[in-house]
Amino acid sequence: MTYPHRAAFPTRWNDNDQYGHMNNAVYYEAMDTTINVWLLRAGLDPLAGGWIAVCAASSCEFRESASFPEPLEIGLRAGRVGTTSVTWELGILRPEAKQPLATGRFVHVFVDRASRRPVPVPDEVRAAISRDLAS
């Protein structure tokens, strides 16, 4: 699988669960963080901007275990880009690996900050997707 954007995700001591592998919730945290850092760079102003992106759906499929202290990377690409939403496709990988340990999907709907009603995907986000994340 190819991910145009890859971000480092160092595992932490408290990421492991009692079974000795990374807790499922940490996979979601890593994916959500990767998307939101990318959105910040694409123009999201979470405190004062006119729009925000809210998660409408998410999923993760686990293929292999990971655990502290191994370093990981989160791969990101844009899947479906709709009128008011984007489906992000993610992979959790070991550095240099082509096949992910886990794959995930997040659907973000873009909404007006005040009314929380859907708005079109912002132009700056569409441009950044075309430039950086088209699969």
UniProtKB/TrEMBL annotation:
Record's signal peptide: none
Annotated Gene3D superfamilies: Hotdog Thioesterase
SUPFAM superfamilies assigned to the protein according to its UniProt record, in alphabetical order: Thioesterase/thiol ester dehydrase-isomerase (SSF54637)
Keyword Membrane recorded: no
One GO MF term attached to the UniProt entry: fatty acyl-CoA hydrolase activity
Superkingdom assignment: Bacteria
Keyword set, alphabetical order: Hydrolase
Database matches in InterPro entries: 4-hydroxybenzoyl-CoA_TE, HotDog_dom_sf
Protein name: Thioesterase superfamily protein
Organism: Cellulomonas fimi (strain ATCC 484 / DSM 20113 / JCM 1341 / CCUG 24087 / LMG 16345 / NBRC 15513 / NCIMB 8980 / NCTC 7547 / NRS-133)
